[in-house]
Amino acid sequence: MNDIVVELQNVTKKIRGKTLIDQLSFQVKRGEIYGFLGPNGAGKTTTIRMMVGLMSITSGTILIEGHDVVKNRAKAMAHVGAIVENPELYKFMTGRQNLLHFARMCGKDVSQSRIDEIVKFVELDQVLDKKVQNYSLGMRQRLGIAQALLHQPSILILDEPTNGLDPAGIRELRDYLKRLAREENISILVSSHLLSEIELMCDRVVVIQNGKYVGEQILDSKHTEEQQVTRSIQFHVEQGEAAAQSLEGTSYQPVQVENNVVTLTLTRDQIPEIVEHFVRHHIKIYEVRSIAETLEDKFLSMTKGGHIQ
Question: N vs C: which end of the chain shows fewer Cβ within 10 Å?
Fold first, then answer.
């Protein structure tokens, strides 16, 4: 089975001579959750609309499970579940009636056992026969996800899925999506303006700006060699200047020395080497702290201070 579920190859979108998406390329791997980020007007929603077949592509290729979205739309869309903005639900119908209706529309035989399985997964089995108009926003979002999963897609695409949810609802949705990726091996692409939530939820983030690919960041350490990742390490010592001087002539040069705190950029394996070095030089160490760069720091660095929409 191919590990690449979705691939964008030099995708461009122009409207009335204006370039909205410019030679955009990236991949989405199976069983991972991707955050899709960008400043205001970066082109996230335009890209998503092209991915789900709601907007034409000017040039380039979008492949879903190897099927071209333009040349073989039906086969490509058979692998996609999506909620663009808010779930499209019939509020005067019950949750069960909504799911049965969408099951008939999806073009693929959906068994009653599949419906029961998904309903149980999103924990709506106790309210399935109530009208959707009586559902909370979080319940409607979960029903929307259930509807998007009926045909067992390879990728679930969600555009701002936490809009309007309270903190409990946001956490609930996050937990469902993480379980979904882990237990069903589904890829998930999430566009959101909540950087802190993306950081908690996602394995990776793809960042675009002005319709162009800016970069990709790994958020989950399981996808990289932990020992080789560099990070900022703060050593709280008795005499900061003496500690810095002891490092002169070595390959370890302080990034900053302030208020007896010496900051260096190190891999995990280098931390005990510095501790041993300071002990040999009779420098008392009171605390060693790893300062992780937040997703917000990374995003602002990549976009030069751009604003999330």
Answer: N
Instruction: Quote the pTM value.
Output: 0.74
Torsion of CA 126, 130, 134, 136, to 10 degrees: 30
Tell me the C-alpha distance between 28 and 133, whole Å. Answer: 35
Strand order in the sheet with 18-29: 18-29, 4-15, 59-64, 67-68
Residue ranges making up the domain that contains 71: 4-220
- Asked if residue 232 and residue 133 are part of one domain, the reply reads no
Alpha-carbon distance values, 243 to 274, 281, 282 (Å): 10, 8, 9
Under the banding of pLDDT at 50, 70 and 90, the label for residue 307 is low
Q: Does residue 309 sit within a domain?
A: no
pLDDT of residue 309: 44
Distance CA 23, CA 177 (A): 30
Three-state DSSP at 214 gives strand
Total structural domains in the chain? 2
**Is-contact 51 2, C-beta < 8 A?**
no
Q: Work out the end-to-end distance of the chain between its first and last CA atoms, rounded to an integer number of angstroms.
A: 36
Rounded Cα distance between 78 and 291, Å, is: 44
Q: Which helix (H) or strand (E) holds 36?
A: strand 33-37
Classify residue 298: in a domain, yes or no. no
| Selection from 61, 68, 55 nearest residue 11 by Cα | 61
Residue 67 CB-density burial (10 A; 0-12 exposed, 13-18 middle, 19+ buried): middle
Q: Which CATH number fits the domain that encloses residue 233? A: 3.30.70.100
Same domain? For 216 and 268 the reply is: no
Report yes or no on 158 lying in a domain.
yes
Burial of 243-266, coded b for 16+ CB within 10 Å and e otherwise, reads bbebbeeeebebeebeebbbbbeb
Signed CA dihedral, 63, 64, 68, 69: sign only: negative
